[in-house]
Design a protein that fits this description.
The protein has 2 domains: about 200 residues, 3-Layer(aba) Sandwich (Rossmann fold); about 70 residues, rRNA adenine dimethylase, C-terminal domain (Helicase, Ruva Protein, domain 3), CATH 1.10.8.100. Helix content is about 40%, strand content about 20%. The longest helix has 16 residues. It is elongated.
């Protein structure tokens, strides 16, 4: 069995199966053993862990995960990769490969069946266009997770961990930080992949909060307020919330809510912290109830 993780082995296995890269799946396979080691280390995987890997590709990272974890469930959307995975992972008996779109998998059910409902660790090298929907889907489904370690586009990693006032700060920063603590473990240049992507990447670990850092009366409303505040970044917070279709209050009441928060009426959404957004959404919640 080939241990993958370098260009030579990767090319051999791809040629053996006449594999063709699918643009629609955004496939870029890792060919750097240092980066693979870093991912395993960042995810803090132990022999007690059930790991869910999203997008195993040809099984490069999967082999590393199988050595480190108790059990791995790998979900791969591209059916042409399934015979390759059966080959590259044939030496292991602690693997389950599922040929499915991760957005359609009932992960809560898997965690119940395979891990008695205890939190799992998630590792992924995802196509960049789908990173955010997958991560947000996991958070919103309240899947029991200890941490998520993903390879993302460098600018997405920057957005996930940035704070108020920076140009990278936005709805994604707040959503991620509401659920988890982000930590950038490594920056990964394009030459660590095959084929080479056009952008730099980063490995980011999201450790889920044991209890939320802020208390809100309505989680869905918090995210509506955040989205409306960043939809038109250059607008003031009053105008952003007033133009948003999801906040059903008059402009006067919105201005009043912002006043109650104790900030300037001309403030922009990008200046507010997560705590302030939580307070604002609770004030708006009370006004909408009246």
């Amino acid at each position: 069995m080939a241990t993958l993780g370098n260009p030579k082995e990767t090319i051999e296995i791809l040629n053996k199966y006449h594999f063709i890269f699918q643009k629609k799946f955004g496939q870029n396979f890792l060919i750097d053993t240092h980066v693979l080691d870093k991912i395993i280390k960042s995810a803090e995987i132990t022999k007690d862990d059930l790991v869910l890997e999203i997008g195993p590709g040809i099984g490069t990272l999967t082999q590393y995960l199988l050595e480190a974890a108790r059990e791995v469930i790998a979900v791969e959307i591209d059916k042409s990769l399934i015979p390759i995975l059966n080959d590259t992972l044939s030496a292991y008996d602690n693997i389950t490969v599922i040929n499915e779109d991760i957005l359609k998998v009932d992960i809560n059910k898997l965690v119940q069946e395979k891990n008695n409902g205890r939190p799992i660790k998630i590792v992924a090298n995802l196509p960049y266009y789908i990173t955010t929907p997958i991560i947000m889907g996991l958070f919103e489904a309240h899947v029991p997770i200890q941490n998520i370690t993903v390879m993302v586009q460098k600018e997405v990693a920057d957005r996930m961990q940035s704070g108020p006032g920076s140009k990278d700060y936005g709805a994604l920063s707040l959503a991620v930080q509401y659920y988890a603590k982000p930590y950038i473990a490594a920056f990964v240049p394009p030459n660590c992949f095959m084929p080479r992507p056009n952008v730099g990447s980063a490995v980011i670990r999201l450790t889920l909060h044991e209890c939320n850092p802020v208390q809100v009366k309505d989680e869905a409303l918090l995210f509506k307020v955040i989205r409306a505040s960043f939809n038109q970044r250059r607008k003031t917070l009053v105008n952003g919330l007033n133009n948003g279709t999801e906040i059903h209050l008059s402009k006067e009441l919105i201005a009043e809510a912002i006043g109650e928060l104790g900030v300037s009426p001309t403030i922009r959404g990008e200046a507010l912290t997560l705590e302030q957004f939580a307070m604002l959404s609770n004030i708006i919640y009370d006004k909408m109830r009246k």
